[in-house]
Amino acid sequence: MSLKQIIEKFINYYNEQNLEKLMEIYADDAVNDQTALKPIHGKESIRKMLQEQFSRMKAQCIIQNMIEQGNCVAMEWTDPSGFRACTVFYFRGDKIWIQKGYWDKITYCKYHNLDIPRE
Predict the structure, then answer these.
(1) Distance between start and end Cα atoms, the chain
(2) β-bridge mates for residue 95, sequence order
(3) What is the pLDDT of residues 5-59, one digit of tens each?
(4) Contacts of 113 (CB under 8 A, 6+ apart)
(5) Sign of CA dihedral 97, 64, 47, 38
(6) How many of the other CB atoms lie within 10 Å of CB of 70?
(7) pTM
(8) What DSSP character marks residue 63?
(9) Which among 89, 92, 94, 97 is positioned nearest to 72, based on CA atoms?
(10) Using CA atoms, how far apart are residues 82 and 69, in angstroms rounded to an integer?
(11) Residues 1, 110: Cα–Cα separation, whole Å
(12) Are the C-beta atoms of residues 32 and 40 closer than 8 Å to each other?
């Protein structure tokens, strides 16, 4: 299975909020580094972050474009509100080792009618 195909499965599991299947794709020492948030280290910490996210909202990701090169997949995506972002996944074998999300918190809040943080 190609890395792009793994990410396609990952997005399907994400959209279904299937936490157990999502966790199977992460390496034990994975890092989830979203530019608008503090990095999350370790599979169990990522699980807690996703559990919290899924309890607050029905997150949806619509893949617009993906590029695979070496151990990396770059993905442009939107959500149903039209919010746009980019995520880069680095793999070790067939597991996500580092996930870097590039998006703007203020724009995200505006698209989802959330209070804009004043941090």
Answers:
(1) 42
(2) 92
(3) 999 999 999 999 999 999 999 999 999 998 878 999 999 999 999 998 888 777 7
(4) none
(5) positive
(6) 8
(7) 0.89
(8) E
(9) 89
(10) 27
(11) 38
(12) yes
